[in-house]
Amino acid sequence: MAVSAGRGMRDPLPVPLPDAGAPARPFPRRRAAWRRNRAYLAGLTPTAFLLALFFVGPAVWGVYTSFTNRALTGIDARNFRWVGLENYRYLLDDPDLPTVLFNSLVFVVGSAMLGQFVLGLAMALLLDHAEHRGYRLTPLVYAAVLLAWVNPTVVAGFQWVAMFDFYYGSMNRALGWVNLGPVNWLGEAPMLSVIVVNIWRGTAFAMLIFLGALRTIPTQIYEAARVDGAGAGRRFWDHTLPNLRHIAVLVLLSVTMSTFGTFVLIQTLTNGGPGLQTETIALYAYNTAFSSYEIGYGSTIAVLMLAINFVFAAAYLRVSRPKV
Amino acid sequence: MAATWIRRRGATGGMRVAPSSAVLPGDAAAAPRIEGARVAGDQARVARRRRGGGPVEWALVHLAFAAALLFFLAPFAWLVTAAFSARATAYIRWPSDPTLANFRYVFEEFAFGTALRNSIVISTATMVLTTLTVALAGYSLSRLEFRQKTWFSYGVLLLQTMPLSATMVPIYGLARELGLRNSYLGLILVHTAIELPFLTWLMKGFFDAVPRYLEEAAWIDGRSKLRTWWEILLPVARPGLGVAAGLSFLSAWAEVLMVIILVDRSEMATVPLTFYRAARGEGSYMEVRYELVAAMGVLYVLPVLALFFATRKLMVRGLMGTTRGI
Description:
The complex is a heterodimer of chains A (324) and B (326).
Chain A: H1 29-65, H2 75-78, H3 86-93, H4 97-133, H5 138-150, H6 153-163, H7 170-177, H8 185-188, H9 190-215, H10 219-227, H11 232-260, H12 264-269, H13 281-290, H14 295-320
Helix pairs in contact in A: 1-14, 4-9, 4-11, 5-9, 9-11, 11-14, 13-14
Chain B: H1 19-22, H2 33-36, H3 43-48, H4 55-83, H5 101-109, H6 112-143, H7 149-161, H8 164-178, H9 184-208, H10 213-220, H11 225-236, H12 238-254, H13 257-262, H14 271-279, H15 290-310, H16 312-319
Helix pairs in contact in B: 4-15, 5-15, 6-9, 6-12, 6-14, 7-9, 9-12, 10-11, 12-16, 14-15
């Protein structure tokens, strides 16, 4: 059979086709695949439509708008024009951008990587151990952590604004009992405050995953270690931690991504202030678009955000390799 | 995080910690131990339970418990006590003259009735639409067989990690162009879309665990694929549908970011938006009255808690897959 005849070359050695002796297919392979799959593809269309409308569409729209000088209102709202890379050039020179990126970094490292991750692991180990011992309070503590998690964000923000109140807040009253001066939480330690609240809100997730992971460690390992005379600390370092390593990487990436996009919580607590002290990149994009009415430049910041997030998402996919 | 695809490469040789398959009976591995402890016949657990430990250990564990309870419950203690006080303060105080009047004022002063109706309509419609959509998509994605499937599935997963706060500016612009602002349709579609990537993966996991001879038998009987899906597969995947319905309702009930940018007419406000505005003292000449907002908060949180804790085993498994913060 002349496999490459169409390319104007001489035929190389004849290639025996595997199905040479088989009866001819009623239709080409592609159409067979289409037949087999068309019902399933139809089943995916509503999802594909909605995802295109609210995820892919906005992302494309955002990238396009970042090349324009579009405004929210006024003459530049309708008659915006293509400005090329001007927004991106401005982004590089933006005096606020280093501050905003640094704030995002502090917020993510403080509340996700150190806070939720470490506290979540600690709570998982504590509850796991307490459960072994059969302590009665264990389910209550578990429920308390979950409660903060299912609580809607706006309510969490409101609760903690009251907790942090300078004159009457519970935090300062508690400090007063031990003769420590009142702290102006949201005024003088705003980043610490939002980090504390985000840890409060998000610890449950890491805890749940670690609890699930601890459960899959075979008990025989511990029994064997105990027979060998390993103490509790030894067993923890040699067996518990290595078994959690893979899960830990995934939890770390996951809480990083969910924390990176945090918006409502910070907005209700400090609204980025005082000054720019808690302005993360998400708030900066919002304020540029809706307070300064610069949708073009706001989109540029959002594109930067998506790019940063994409790096973490790619790392997550690489580590987890989901079964398709 | 979608624990659906978390595979451990540890001592168990790649045992999956999967909420999806875990909902099928007999696989308690994915549930947190506290939930799983009640699973009947969980012999390994019982064997591992060792009561005892010294009094020092008891004291240390309970000290940690006390600190955790204080940290995690104090804001709720304040919310509830403030809601029942005639004049609330910012610190936790047992109400000196407990009253229910705040709950009535919430309806009178914040048009809470309208907001409640809007929220119920939007959340319920979102729940129905999401459940149907992801049940269809999850099944299709599970049975689809072609080479580009991996990329399509990974693409869906990537969308799941996209922060909403990054796309809210374009979504605002798009909704304005399409006339989807201040409308039920717009809010329902947005809230449906938000949870789609994650729940599609979740449902795919459920359907992956359903053996194919079920549907093949139905096809031989002469049912169409759509009818087979509706009559045979949906009943089998009921636990998954429950998770999808519960999570999509909770998500739509709690979501505020999209409502903030899509709604500016007061008769379209939802409960989270009304709460958000009240907590910021918008539209009022006085300072924020803690007891009123707290009462609204209690009314807002109550359905969430009731639904979540009534179905928490299912929900916890499902929620483990969430990557996106709000």
